[in-house]
Design brief:
The complex is a heterodimer of chains A (about 160) and B (about 110). Chain A has two helices and nine strands; from the N terminus they run H-H-E-E-E-E-E-E-E-E-E. Chain A is of the alpha+beta class and about 160 residues long. In chain A, the strands form two sheets. In chain A, strands 1, 3, 5, 6, 8 and 9 form a six-stranded mixed sheet that branches. A three-stranded antiparallel sheet of chain A has the order 2-4-7, with no helix packed on it. Chain B has no helices and seven strands. In chain B, the strands form two sheets. Chain B has a four-stranded antiparallel sheet, with no helix packed on it. With about 110 residues, chain B is mainly β. Classes of the chains: A alpha+beta (about 160), B mainly beta (about 110). At the A-B interface, helix 1, strand 6 and strand 7 of A face strand 4 and strand 5 of B. Strand 6 of chain A pairs antiparallel with strand 4 of chain B.
Chain lengths: ~160, ~110
C-alpha cells in the first residue's frame, strides 16, 4: 500500500509541476503574436496593391494630439470630394503604425452616403501615427497622417 | 445569436426633411477582446472576440459596409453620413469572429 500511494503521489506532483510550464510556454507564444498581426508596410501594400498613395490636404483627419487613455482614441475622417454616381469616395481605411495589427477599419462607402465622412474610436498601444487612406472611385489613393501621443497604452 | 447585445442607432439631427444629409451613429456594447490581455480573476488569456463585419442598410439596400479588427475600442462606435431618400428603415447588421450575428433597426421618418 505504501508503495502504491507513493507512486500515485509522484504522478500527481509531476503533473502539477508539468502543467504550469506548458501554460507558460503557451502564454509566451500568444504574447508574441495576436490573431491577425500585420505590420504597417504590409497592410498598406495589400490595400493599395502596390499603387502610390499621395499625401493630400483634401482629407481632414481629426485625432487628439495627446491621448490620455490609449484604449479610447476618437478618430474622425472627412474627405472633401464629390459623392456622385461614377465619381465618389469608394473607401476609407484607418491604419496605425505601431500596433500588432496595423489595420483598424475598412469602410466601403457608396454615393448614398452623400459625404465622405466616418468617425470611430480605436485602441493605440503607444505613441504613434494614425493614418487614413482614402480610395477614390477612379482607383487612386490619398493619404493623411497625424501623430498621437499616448500616455497609457490601450492594447494590454 | 445566443447573446442579445445592447445596441443603439442615433440619427442626428432629430428633425430632418427628405433629401437632408444626416449623421447615423451606431453604438454596440461588445468586449472587443484582442486575444492578448489576461483575465484579472483567473489569470488566463482571454481569447480574441471582436466584431468583424458591419453593414448599414436602408430598406434592405446596403449603403455602407465596414470591415473591422480588434484594434477598434471596446463598445465600438461608428458614424457615417446618409442622404435621406424618403420614409423607410435603417438596419445595421453585425457579425463577430465567433459567428455571432445580430441586427438593429430604426425607422426613418422625415418631416416635410
Amino acid at each position: 500500500m505504501k508503495r502504491r500511494s507513493f507512486v500515485q503521489g509522484m504522478l500527481l506532483t509531476s503533473a502539477v509541476v508539468a502543467t504550469p510550464v506548458l501554460l507558460n510556454a503557451e502564454e509566451k507564444k500568444a504574447k508574441k503574436k495576436g490573431p491577425n498581426d500585420m505590420d504597417f508596410a504590409t497592410a498598406l501594400s495589400t490595400i493599395t496593391g502596390g499603387k502610390e498613395a499621395k499625401d493630400s490636404d483634401k482629407i481632414k483627419l481629426t485625432v487628439p494630439e495627446i491621448a490620455e487613455n490609449g484604449a479610447v482614441v476618437p478618430v474622425k475622417v472627412e474627405v472633401d470630394h464629390p459623392m456622385e454616381e461614377g465619381n465618389f469616395v469608394k473607401a476609407i481605411h484607418i491604419l496605425n503604425t505601431k500596433n500588432g495589427n496595423a489595420r483598424c477599419v475598412d469602410v466601403m462607402l457608396t454615393p448614398l452616403n452623400a459625404k465622405g465622412y466616418f468617425a470611430t474610436r480605436v485602441k493605440l498601444g503607444g505613441t504613434q501615427e494614425v493614418v487614413s487612406l482614402v480610395e477614390l472611385s477612379d482607383g487612386s489613393f490619398l493619404k493623411a497622417a497625424k501623430s498621437v501621443k499616448v500616455t497609457i497604452g490601450g492594447c494590454g | 445569436m445566443a447573446e442579445e447585445r445592447k445596441s443603439m442607432i442615433k440619427i442626428k439631427p432629430k428633425k430632418f426633411k427628405v433629401g437632408d444629409i444626416v449623421k447615423v451613429d451606431f453604438i454596440v456594447i461588445h468586449p472587443m477582446d484582442t486575444g492578448l490581455s489576461k483575465d484579472k480573476k483567473t489569470g488566463k488569456i482571454k481569447p480574441a472576440h471582436y466584431i468583424d463585419n458591419v453593414t448599414f442598410s436602408f430598406d434592405g439596400k446596403p449603403f455602407t459596409t465596414l470591415k473591422t479588427w480588434e484594434t477598434v475600442s471596446t463598445n465600438p462606435y461608428f458614424s457615417v453620413n446618409f442622404k435621406v431618400p424618403g420614409k423607410g428603415k435603417i438596419t445595421v447588421d453585425y457579425t463577430d469572429n465567433t459567428g455571432e450575428k445580430n441586427s438593429k433597426s430604426k425607422k426613418v421618418k422625415p418631416k416635410g
